[in-house]
Amino acid sequence: MTITRLWAALLIGPLLLCTLCFFVLPFALLAVTGQGYMDVLHDPYYWRIFAYTLEISAVVTAGCLLIAYPIAYYLIFIAPGRTLRRVIFIIVIAPLFTSNIVRSFGWIIILGRNGVINNALYDLGLIEKKLQLLYTDFSVVVGLIYIMTPFMVLSLSSVLQKIEPSLREAAKDLGASPPVAFIKVTLPLSMPGIVAGSLIVFTLTMGAYVTPSVMSGGKSTVMSMLIYQQYAVSINYPLGAVLAIALLAGSLVVVGLYLMAVRGVEARYKPLEASAK
Amino acid sequence: MIEIKSLSKVYGQFRALDDVSLFVEEGEFIALLGPSGCGKTTLLRSIAGFVQPDGGSISISGRSMLGQPPNKRPVNTVFQNYALFPHYSVANNVAFGPRRQRLPVQEIKQRVQEALTAVGMSDFASRFPSQLSGGQQQRVALARAIVNRPKVLLLDEPLGALDLKLRKQLQLELSKLHKTLGITFIFVTHDQEEALVMADRVAVMSRGKILQLGKPDEIYDHPSSRYVASFVGESTLLRCDVGQDGRVVLEANGAVLPAQLAGIWRNGQSLMIRPENIAVGPAVGPDETAVEGVVASVAFLGSTRRVHLELANREVAIVDIPGTGPKPELGQALTVHWHGAKATFVSD
C-alpha cells in the first residue's frame, strides 16, 4: 500500500504540530533568550555534576550490556522451546509495566540498613556492622541498571535473532571453538544491537530523574536533579533552562563521539560501498 | 575412509535416520539423493557434527567421530545458503579456517590465493559477500571449505538456489574440482539428474533409510524398488501376475513375458522399462512385449516427445517418440513395444 503525500501530511501533521508548539518553539526560545551560559560554563561545580552524571551513565550502560547480553544470548540461541522463550521475554518486559518510583522504592527494602541483604549477611555472621548500601553511588547504579536492562535486552535480542544460525555453524565447521566463534562472528554481527541498546540506555540514564533521586537519597546530585532544584526549589527558571540545554548539548556530544568511534570499528568490517552490487 | 554403522536419529515421533550404514572410499564422490525429509541432510549434519545421533557410529580414517565437536572433525561443509560471514571480505572469509589452525601468515596468504584461484574468484578477494552474485557466493563458500584441505567435503544442496544454466556449469566445475583435489565429497541433493551426473555412487534415501546404494547407471538401469525407479528418472511400471497356464503375464493386457524374464520374476515384482527403450508399434518376435493404451498427455522435450499412455488397467506407460514425427493426438489409441533385455523387475 502506498500513502499519498496528503495522507502522510494529515497523519503526521498533528503530532508534528504538537511537538513544534509545545516543545521545539519554547525550547528554541529558551535556548536563544537563555542567559548565564558563560556563568555555567565557568563554574566547576556544574562541570563536576555533569561529569558525575556522565560517569554514572557510562557505568550503567556498561553494566546493562554485561547483564543483558547473556540474557539475550540465552533467550535467542539456547532457551529450548517457544514457551520458555516467551516466559523469559515476559519476565524481562514485566518491570516496564510498573512505575519507576515503585520499583526504586523496592530497592530501598532490599538495600536498606535493615534491608534484606544487610539482615541476611548480618544474621549469617558474615558482617559485623551493617553495610551502607543504600544512598550511595552503588545504589544509584544498581537501581538504574535494573530499570534500563529491559531496553538493552530487547535491542540485543532483536539483532541476535537476525543472525543466521548457519553462520555460527560455519564458524565451528571451519575450526573455531565456541568462544572463538562468538568473538569472530556473533559479537561483531551483534554490534548494531549493542550500539542501539547503548544509545537508548545512555540517553535515558543521562536524563533519568526519579531513580537517581530516590536511590541517592539526595546525597549526590545528577544533572536532572540539579535542573529540578532550579525549577521547584530555587525558582530560578533561567538557570534551570540553561542547565537543561547544557545537559542536552553535552549528551549529544558524547553520543556523537561514541558513534564516530563505532563507525571506526565497523569500517574494519564493512566496505565503504557496502550497498553497491 | 568413512564408516557409518547403523546410525539412527529420532526427533520426537519422527525417525530422521533409521539404521543407516554407509561406507565411503577415500576420494569418492557420493550423492545422498532423496526428497525433503528423507534424512539426507540429517546424515550430512551428523557427519559434520551438528547433529548428535541417538545410536550407531561414525568414524573417519578409523577415528571415531562421536562426541567430537564440529571444530575437531577433519571435514568441512558447504552450506545450503553459503553462510558466508557478511562482515568479512572474500579473502578473510576464506582465511577463517587457516587462521583457526594458526598457520604462518605467509602460508595462509598462499592457501587463500590457491583456493580462490581454484574456484575462479581470485579477482574478488577484497569484495564483500553482499557484493557478489549467488554463483560467486557459492564459489567463495567452496573455496572457504577446500582451503582447509579437509579429508571430507560435505555439500548440502549447494546448487539448490542457483538458476539452471549456472547449476549445470557449477556441476561440471565441482566434478573437475573433485578430480583435481582428490578429496572425498559427500553431496546432498534432491535433484536426481545432479546426482547421476556428478556422483561416483548414489545413495537413494527415503524415510530415514538408504534404499539403494550404487553407481548411477546401476541405479538407473536396475533400481531395487518401485520407489527408486520412480524417483530416479521416469519409468513405466507394470504389474505382473501368473496366468492361467502358469506363465508370467502383464496384468494390463495378459501379454506373456519372454521366458528369460519370466524365469527371474518373483511374486509381487513389477516390470520396469525406461521411456527411451519403448517404441511405437506391435511386438515382433518372442523377446518383445507390447501393450496398448490411449494417449493421455504429450510433452515436447526437443529431440523427443514424451507420451503418457493410459492402459486398460489404469497403469501408465511412458514412451519417448521422435520429435520430428507426427504429434500423437490425445485420446488416440497407440500400441507400444519393448525388447525383453531392456526391461527389469522392481519390488514394491
TrEMBL record, chain A:
Residues 50-260 form the ABC transmembrane type-1 domain. It is found in: Cell membrane. The keyword Cell membrane applies. Keywords: Cell membrane, Membrane, Transmembrane, Transmembrane helix, Transport. PROSITE patterns: ABC_TM1. It comes from the Bacteria. It is a multi-pass membrane protein. The keyword Chloroplast does not apply. InterPro entries: MetI-like, MetI-like_sf. Pfam families: BPD_transp_1. SUPFAM superfamilies: MetI-like. The chain crosses the membrane at residues 49-75, 87-110, 138-160, 194-215, 235-260. PANTHER family: INNER MEMBRANE ABC TRANSPORTER PERMEASE PROTEIN YDCU-RELATED, INNER MEMBRANE ABC TRANSPORTER PERMEASE PROTEIN YDCU-RELATED-RELATED. Belongs to the binding-protein-dependent transport system permease family. CysTW subfamily. This is ABC transporter permease. The lineage of its organism: Bacteria, Pseudomonadati, Pseudomonadota, Alphaproteobacteria, Hyphomicrobiales.
Automatic annotation (TrEMBL), chain B:
It holds the Pfam family ABC_tran. The complex is composed of two ATP-binding proteins (PotA), two transmembrane proteins (PotB and PotC) and a solute-binding protein (PotD). It catalyses: ATP + H2O + polyamine-[polyamine-binding protein]Side 1 = ADP + phosphate + polyamineSide 2 + [polyamine-binding protein]Side 1. Belongs to the ABC transporter superfamily. Spermidine/putrescine importer (TC 3.A.1.11.1) family. This is Spermidine/putrescine import ATP-binding protein PotA. Part of the ABC transporter complex PotABCD involved in spermidine/putrescine import. Responsible for energy coupling to the transport system. It comes from Mesorhizobium montanum. Keywords: ATP-binding, Cell membrane, Membrane, Nucleotide-binding, Translocase, Transport. One of its GO terms (molecular function) is ATP binding. InterPro entries: AAA+_ATPase (IPR003593), ABC_SmlMolc_Importer (IPR050093), ABC_transporter-like_ATP-bd (IPR003439), ABC_transporter-like_CS (IPR017871), Mo/tungstate-bd_C_term_dom (IPR008995), P-loop_NTPase (IPR027417), PotA-like (IPR005893), Transp-assoc_OB_typ2 (IPR013611). Its EC number is 7.6.2.11. The keyword Cell membrane applies. Residues 2-232 form the ABC transporter domain.
